[in-house]
Amino acid sequence: MLSDSSPVVDVTKRIALIPGDGIGPEVIRVAEQVLTSVVRSRQLPLTWTAFDWGAEKYLRERVTLPADAIEMLRRDFDAILIGALGDPRIPSNQHALDILLGIRFGLDLYVNLRPVKLLDAKLCPLKSVTEKEVDFVVFRENTEGAYAGVGGNFKRGTPDEVAVQEDVNTRKGVERILVYAFEYAVSRGRRKMCMSDKSNAMPYGHGLWQRTFADVRKRFPQIEAQHLYADTLAMEIVRNPSQFEVIVTCNLFGDLLSDLAAGLLGGLGAAPSANLNPGYISMFEPVHGSAPGIAGKNVANPMAAILTTGMMLEYLGYRDEGARVEKVAADAVHASVMTPDFGGTFGTREVGEWICDRL
Ligand SMILES: NC(=O)c1ccc[n+]([C@@H]2O[C@H](COP(=O)([O-])OP(=O)(O)OC[C@H]3O[C@@H](n4cnc5c(N)ncnc54)[C@H](O)[C@@H]3O)[C@@H](O)[C@H]2O)c1
Q1: Nearest partner of 25 among 316, 348, 284, judged by Cα
Q2: pTM above 0.90?
């Protein structure tokens, strides 16, 4: 029993939910039900609060990411679970850029982690591939590279227009993503690491990746490290995905290669992701966008959001619960409880109910 003088430690973990636009609210509603099921069955000290940041708020109030949002998130929350942002009524995509990039940069979420784990062989477009053969992770540098937003236009709108979009690579930025990828490999019992760049065509920026990789790999002699140019890697992921365990690359190539890899899982509806600042508040999101064409029809695949919720539970210290969510999600696919994009006949809500019943 606690004595009167014992400090009361609040172990409650707090989650900020941002459903967002299009199918975002539909898949986040299912994710919330999954959280509720896990919290009730395992008595976890987890709470969450929803924020209405997205297209509607922007159109109504001209507010994208509120001025104090980053400070408030850092102070009051341990994780963020976000649906998707993007609305055809806002062609500039300004609100989505402000919110997503604002959080990524504001909280320095430098690790983009995308697991590529096949739930069921029947979802993979490659022939005769088993689940065990598609099981790797892609680490994408998340704060620099071609997406750093450095550049400009000169003589804009004239026939002489010049557009410059810089590829920014810093020693600190490259080193920290490489170190995190190696540490992840060691902690998960993974043995193989593939670093990918285009140092043959981009000798300055990606030369830095090469030199940093040469330094960092020496610190992890137990990991078998190799290098592939990004074009070769794209081909190899399709030709023989089983050769990969951990891939680490820059922002631009990580974006493309992880979507290619998501194709091996059955599409974007199956691809979860995390944006991490390890040890600090981090953001979890399904890879897919807001899919406005199917919004409100109860056909959006909630699987990516459910798997993302499992990743978030694991990050918050609930590894068994995260693994359980992933297992039950795979069971749903084995039982063909799937939405139409997976070839099933179930709705978003029905897939969610099936999974929650078993959690
Ligand atoms: N992280 C994000 O919030 C994010 C990511 C990508 C795109 N977007 C935004 O989303 C909007 C639409 O972009 P897009 O069409 O290029 O990409 P998208 O991912 O929304 O859709 C691509 C295709 O996949 C399908 N799809 C996506 N998610 C699905 C799901 N869960 N279940 C079933 N089918 C699914 C869509 O119907 C569409 O055919 C744009 O405004 C874009 O900027 C946002």
Answers
A1: 348
A2: yes
